[in-house]
Structures are given as C-alpha cells and as structure tokens.
Amino acid sequence: MQPVSLEDLLEGAVSVERGDGWIKPWRLPFPLLKLFPPDDGIAMRGEDAAGVRLRFTTDSPRLELEVLPVRQPRLFDLTADGQLMRTVTLEPGDSVVVFDDDLSTDDAPLEIWLPNTHPVGLQELRVVAGARLEPVADRRLKWITYGSSISQCGAAHSPARTWPGVVARDRNLNLTCLGYSGQCHLEPMVARMIRDLEADVITLKLGINVQGGATLSGRTLRPAVIGMVQIIRERHPDTPIVIVSPIISPPREDQPNAVGMSLGVLRAQLEDAVERMEDLGDGHIHYVDGLEVFGEEFVGRLPDLLHPDAEGYEILGQRMSQIVMGSTPIARALGAPETGGAR
Predict the structure, then answer these.
(1) Per residue in 299-330, pLDDT tens?
(2) 90: exposed, middle or buried (Cβ count in 10 Å: 0-12, 13-18, 19+)
(3) In the chain, at which residue ranges do the beta strands (DSSP E only) sit?
(4) CA angle (69 as vertex; 133, 113 as ends), nearest 5
(5) 124, 133 in Cβ contact below 8 A?
(6) How far is the C-alpha of 17 from the C-alpha of 125, rounded, in Å?
(7) Residues of the chain with pLDDT under 70
(8) Chain centre distance of CA 98
C-alpha cells in the first residue's frame, strides 16, 4: 500500500494542526484558539471533525486510513458522489480504518467523512501499489452552517448522516459545519471567522444554547444577532443568510429561563432581528421558524425532549433541505425552485 498526502484532500476544515507525522483538522482557526474562550468550551468542540472530509478519486480496490488511536470508538463514512457506500467503526485503541469490498465508482468523487463527535489525527491514506489517487477540486457551492449540538448531531447514525450531511449530499454542497455542542452563543469571534471564510450560502441555527444557558436576554439577544450578521456582511454583502430558530423542545417552549427567555419569546426576538435588517434593505436575509422544520409532530423523535435521535436527524436533514434550502434567498443561489420557508 502506498501513502498519499492528506492535507490536499481536506474539505470542511477551518484550519489544520500539524504534529510529528500527523495532521488534525480543526473547525476553528487553530493558531487563534486563545481568542475563543472558554478553553473547555468551544475550543474543545472545534477540535471535533464534524463535517470534515477527505475528497479524492481513486482506482484502488482498497483504502487504508491510518489515524492516531484514541480510547473511544469512532465512526467513518465513505460516500461516492454523495451516496453512502459504507460505514466503518474504529474500535478503541485501533488506528487503521479499512474500506474495501469493491470500491469501483466509475471515477466518481469519493469522500471519507471523519467522526462528527471526536477529534482525529490523520497520519496516512494508503492505496494498493500501482493504484491512482488524486485530489478532486470541490467546485460545488460552499455552504457554512453554524449551530449547537443539534447541528453537531451526536446521536446521528454516522458522520454523513448528520442533518448537515444529509442536506449537503442532497443539495450537492461543499459543507463547512460549525455545529459546536453547547457552544452556540453568537460569539463575535465566530462571526469574524465566518466572515473570513468562503461561502455561497450561510445558515445560522440560533437560540437553543442561548436559552438553555441564559447567556443572552431580551435586552441583548437581538443586538447580538444583528451584530453577528453585520460582521459577516463585511465580506459577504450579498450572500444569502438564513436564520433558523430552535426546533421544538416541549419543556422550554413556554417556560422562561433565568433571564425570562422561553423558546417562544426567543423565536419572536430572532424574527424581529431579521425584520429590522430587511427593513433597512438587506434583501439576502431570511428567517425560518424552527417549528416549521421540526415541530410538534416530531416530539417522539426527541428522547430527551431536546435532541433528535438518529432517525430524527435524518428527518431533520430532509426537512432542512426542503424548507431552509428551498427558502427564497438560498433557492435563488442554488438555482433551485422555492419549496418552503416563507413567512
């Protein structure tokens, strides 16, 4: 088996940490981690490889991906032109992920989806002797999505079956997933990071961590949303931005938190923030009510009444693809028919 350079194959990462014989993709700018406090918060979640892929073509009948071993099991997916081929579980302490059993794909782009809830140190990707492996320039539209654990999707069947993975494969998009479990609090440094990334469409799934942590109030939420969007607009003046409010969570719908914010109040505040920007001429911003995407009819898919189960994430992905990606500004960018998301 002959090794292949890995860094040229990475998609969906914001930065790369380099060690002795390994690289690690990050979903934050690794050299600037000190500017993303708390150190045990978003900085830890940014190390997880949600949405990060290795993209290439090959004629090799077997692939071996060598990674740094860890103490937890990790899941890896292989897709061909967006279609899931197989899922491999790497057991604790093991370091080689093997994909074989006929990988013929008529030269369709392959992607190895890395674990969405764990870091991964990449060492080598090996193909059989004499086989060809080449990077594939990803010219698909770039989609950035920002959110919480519901966007990192810890209970998903596997990395490509998170809701962002379902949407990206359904809509043929180049995904950058900025779902940070427990850490979606509209930080200005995250806004600056999104501003500085390439993007054709942006979705901001906001609110559940803010409500759960009582980190923004009725006084501060709307200014934070408006500020985040305006920072992003500095380099993305015409990029479609869709703000999606929280999906249903029955215990939080009407119960105020420590700063008086129930999910019902929070959704109204998010909608008002978007309307204010629309009123001042932003024709590329849109609001989608999370209850329209995943409402009361799906409560049975919320084991803890907050996070979807594995099938729930699949449903959420299908509905996000239909409703959010079918909303007016994104549908125009994708050249697709409008299918939902209207207020």
Answers:
(1) 999 999 999 999 999 999 999 999 999 988 89
(2) buried
(3) 2-4, 10-11, 15-19, 22-26, 53-58, 63-67, 74-80, 83-90, 96-99, 110-113, 122-127, 133-135, 142-147, 174-179, 201-205, 241-244, 285-288
(4) 45
(5) no
(6) 17
(7) 1-3, 104, 340-343
(8) 25
136-183 pLDDT, tens digit each: 989 999 999 999 999 999 999 999 999 999 999 999 999 999 999 999
Which tokens hold the place of 20?
A: 């002795």
User: Are 178 and 194 within 8 A, CB to CB?
Assistant: yes
* Whether 72 contacts 118, CB under 8 Å: yes
Q: What are the C-alpha distances in Å from 325 to residues 3, 277, 284, 319, 328?
A: 38, 20, 13, 9, 8
Mean pLDDT (the chain, rounded): 95
Give the span between the Cα atoms of 162 and 157, in whole angstroms: 7
- β-pairing, 142-147 vs 83-90, is unpaired
Contact (CB, 8 A) for 310 and 157: yes
| Phi-psi group of 172: left, alpha or beta (phi > 0 → left; psi -120 to 50 → alpha; rest → beta) | left
Q: What is the pTM of this model?
A: 0.95
